[in-house]
Amino acid sequence: MLRNIKLSTKFNLLLMLIFITSIAVSGWTLSTILEGNAENNITSKALILLQTMNAVRDYTNTEITPELNARLDTEEQFLPQTVPAFSAREVFEKFRSAKEYSNFFYKEATINPTNPRDKADEFESQIVASFRNQPSVKQVTGFRFFPGGDLFYVARPLAITQESCLRCHSTPEAAPKSQINTYGKDNGFGWKLNDIIAAQIISVPASAVLNSARQSLSLVMAILIGILAVGILLVNFLLRRTVINPLKQMSHTAKEVSTGNMDAEFEHKSSDEIGILAASFNRMKVSLQMALNMLNQGNNSQF
């Protein structure tokens, strides 16, 4: 089939194949790179928020809790403002009022929490367990599936680093009376100093990561396709001018010579392969013409 296709068509098919292959390979490579960059950008924002939440936790633990500790044994209802996790969660909700962070979610996923809203689900429990089993791991990122849409998450371990935290979490007997009245004696106890008891998790819909990457990919691919298209057209033009057209002219001249028109000429003044071929063709034509003349002279002498 290819034998019956013109040389110009073969060149165009080859260039089209190169174009399509380049776009496919570039698209896949850029998609991978841009998705990685989008994940890194989201991770950077998440880490800043985690640092901010830790600052809120420290402030609550050192400035707020000492001021309210005396009331914990006299109040009937527990004061959640004394809990660093509660303060961090409430402050984060303020962050979410800003459009830039409206899709971010924060949770201190705890296996044995005092407040049920901090209870880790099965997936989060596995993250906490991995932090406990590998203390050297300080951060994990990834995607998790939800029926409503996948989430991209950033998680860090949360350990008990201060003795003051154990007042509410060591044993029910040591806990404030108001805490027992509000949450009971069954949950949030048995914690020990330096134990990893939770994972700080910030998550965002995976679509936010993917959409950011796709927007960048669309722009880059549009520019790349434009550059490749111009390059292909330029190569096509140069091929036609320097290879295809001279070969067409040479083919036409050869056809004329084969039918007896020895006046047909082909000139190509370059020193490239086409020029060498043209010079060889012209020498062959001269040799052929000389041979024909000699043959004619021989035939005339016989008569």
Written account of the structure:
The protein is rod-shaped. It has two domains: 2-10 and 217-302, HAMP domain in histidine kinase (Helicase, Ruva Protein, domain 3), CATH 1.10.8; 33-206, no CATH class. It is of the alpha+beta class. Helix 1 crosses helix 2 (84-95), helix 1 (7-72) packs antiparallel against helix 5 (206-258) and helix 5 packs parallel to helix 6 (273-302). The chain is built from six helices and four strands. The chain has a four-stranded antiparallel β-sheet with strand order 1-4-3-2, sandwiched between helices. A hairpin with a 6-residue loop joins strand 2 (140-144) and strand 3 (151-159). It has helices at residues 7-72, 84-95, 122-133, 177-183, 206-258, 273-302; strands spanning 105-110, 140-144, 151-159, 196-205.
Quick gist of this model?
With 303 residues, this protein is of the alpha+beta class. It has helices spanning 7-72, 84-95, 122-133, 177-183, 206-258, 273-302, and strands at residues 105-110, 140-144, 151-159, 196-205. Strand 2 and strand 3 form a beta hairpin.
Mean pLDDT: 83
Write down the domain tally. 2
Structural class: alpha+beta
What's the N-to-C terminus distance?
52 Å
Quaternary: single chain
Biggest beta sheet summary: 4 strands, antiparallel
Element pattern in H and E: HHEHEEHEHH
| Helical proportion, percent range | 55-70%
How large is the share of residues in beta strands?
Answer: 5-15%
Total strand count, please? 4
The rough form would be described as rod-shaped
| Uncertain stretches of 5 or more adjacent residues | none
CA gyration radius, whole angstroms: 40 Å
